[in-house]
Specification:
The N and C termini lie far apart (64 Å). The longest helix is centred in the middle third of the chain and has 17 residues. The strands form two sheets. A nine-stranded mixed sheet has the order 7-6-8-9-14-13-12-10-11, with helices on both faces. It folds into two domains: 108 residues, UreE, C-terminal domain (Alpha-Beta Plaits, 2-Layer Sandwich), CATH 3.30.70.790; 298 residues, Rossmann fold, CATH 3.40.50.880. It contains 13 helices and 14 strands. Helix 2 crosses helix 5, helix 2 packs parallel to helix 13 and helix 8 packs across helix 9. It is of the alpha/beta class. Strand 6, helix 5 and strand 7 form a beta-alpha-beta unit.
Amino acid sequence: MSFKKSLYILLIFISFSAKASFILLPMDETTQQNHLKAYGITYWCLDKNYKASWLLNYRGGSFLLPDAEEIRKECKIRGVSFEILSDSEEARILEEISSPSQNMETVVLEKAPKIAVYTPKGKQPWDDAVTLVLTYAEIPFTPIYDEEVLSDQLLLYDWLHLHHEDFTGQYGKFYGAYKNAPWYIEQKKDAEALATKLGYSKVSQEKGAVAKKIRDFVIGGGFMFAMCSATDSFDIALAADGVDICEAMFDGDASDANYQSKMNYNNSFAFKDFILERRPEQYEFSDIDMTLKRRIPMDKDYFTLMEFSAKWDPIPSMLCQNHTQLVKGFMGQTTSFDVSLIKSNILVMGTCELNGEARYIHGEKGKGMFTFYGGHDPEDFQHQVGDAPTVLDLHPNSPGYRLILNNVLFPAARKKKQKT
């Protein structure tokens, strides 16, 4: 009887020790059927106060979650591949990751970041890759615009994305091709009405004030992500603070004489010594952008993600997590950045081997951080005005879109001081 009882207790102990305790969302190329929605699952878990860890460079940057029936169910509903791990399997993986010989690291994700997307009212999700992928991954965000920014509502958020905005007051430099298009005329009218409502005599002045509020948000500890023309036009607006760089068709009067010499590059986040494009009909803000300088055929347009030490440089490692180091290129009004115009304290995280252009860069400002990503839509090589929206169900494993979502989850990480 005593032997049977001992055997029974032993069997119970074995069953408990072998029970599933963790869920792994693998993020390698062959196992995960929907990389993009896996980020949404991880965000959902954080939002429900589950613990989560990001396993940097382990199987493409996998996520480790506690085992719970509702998490399994959510993964099945959203079509996200997952694996069940026992305590011993989890311990073995963490031991492998912690080995000094492995370029891997475990990063604890603490809380779901509050996300704001700076975007005009009435824009559709497909107008912007970030709102498109947030919607697809089922990650909640709040659209905000100039009124919210100027009334200090950025303080409510951890993470801000800048829509493809023109912060210089030149209406996206669409004048040459679209000055007679009804949508252009309407957008210009709406922007002028909003500037007047907010107490500014010019759109350029109002947008400049917005750019400075966003700058203060970052300096105060916020995280900012920008794509396409929001990157260089933001820096240009900061460098041109107090200088009229707009021609008469944009703001009703002539630009300042010799305004190029009045640029203050100390004010900009990422770029230095850039030359502004004076011609109103030219669809370009400055020489920061490489769109008109590059001669790269579509089938050869790729950029390479840099490899960082996960243990010593966890921040760029998080931002570059992917199932491939080679990412398909894509164009935009601002496709990529001339490396000679990037400040020395900025980290270049993705470059094109053919011409050395920077596609993906990161920096610190005050207590906060920012990432600039060139191009409009990672799965639409040459996005044109009026093009059909990208259907992300056709691209659930997109490496280019993964970079956006790395930035979305990054503020959830427990911060460690960068060692380099």
